[in-house]
Amino acid sequence: MTLDLFEKFNSTIENFNQLPKGELNPFTVSMDAVISPTQAIINGRETILAGTNNYMGMTYNKECLEAAELALKNFGTGTTGSRVLNGTYNGHIKLEETLKDFYDCDHAIVFSTGYQANLGIIATLAGPKDYVVIDADSHASIYDGCAMGNATIVRFNHNDHENLDKRLDRIRRKDPDAGILVVIEGVYSMLGDLAPIKELATAAKKHNAYVLVDEAHSIGVFGATGRGVAQEQGVEHLVDFTVGTFSKSVGTVGGYCVSNHPKFDVLRLVCRPYVFTASLPPSVIASATKALELIKNSNLRTKLLENSKRLNDGLSDAGFNVGTTGQSPIAAIIIDQQDTAIAYWQKMMQNGVYVNLAVPPATPNGLNLMRCSLSAAHSFEQIDYILEKFIAVGKEIGVLK
Ligand code: PMP
Question: What is the pTM of this model?
């Protein structure tokens, strides 16, 4: 008998089949129409979007839409090619120039997604004789970048600079000349906590290691000009590579890496997730460029952090077990049982609120979360409605006493 290649997925299939079909299934949500960055029609119902990572509400920004429309008209729907062949248009170069200006950096490379940026940078920079030292709570794209490369991978405890120091010390004793890349995130996406970049990067520098910070959830959100947590904490000089995405505060899709390393641009020739894939379409490039210009000088950050505080404080005051620190636009309620979390999610949807049901393996420490990511485009009325429904449903299903 031929081996069924899908046999290994049997338990996943069984678990999925136990979930209800249709609108009560948390993993098959489909938007019928999108009204604004914070509202959509889902299952025929007007729904507040409270889990889209659309931090700045850029998806419907008038100037971004106009830039995208113009590019679509002038350059077509797609490039149909790699950046190193036919897929580089003036727009791609302008976007990379805009990123250099945004980060005040010498070099910038744009990838087709943030996931590919992490895959490409980590797998290419760290070779067989090198080490990648990552935070245990790293995003899947960081883990996958490690899996794709040939370096030795070492994990350190989440946000623990003493543990990082120990790991690096051990590597250096064994291998005094190895190249080491330490990878951390500015904001951790599930619980919204910030990395203590100064402490972590100082430990890295003590052992002559490079530092990469993934600012996917912090570009636009933190720092005087929106560069992220490293800017907010005044430690950009300790960071060698910044990775990020256009799929959150920038409101479109795409990834990037910026750096001052003088040889950085060689990556355009050797980084496979950059070379062997089609470049981003002109409309995406144009709206990302415009969004970066707007984000740099935006006062939306203040409104976003006010919104975040309102929801995080409201959830804490109501007595929820919040995993989040209230430091970022991410708010998450920890739910003990996965069945309860699913029921909670379903009832929130029926009440017109979309949040993320986040469960393992996407979450750290096996947590089940009702995760929200707020936008500067949310009104206080919307935040209060979300809070009101969290409390009412929480009482109904026994999460809140
Ligand atoms: N890094 C982190 C920390 C992320 O949370 C994400 C997206 N969830 C990515 C990278 C990947 O970004 P993209 O959506 O552009 O692939």
Answer: 0.97
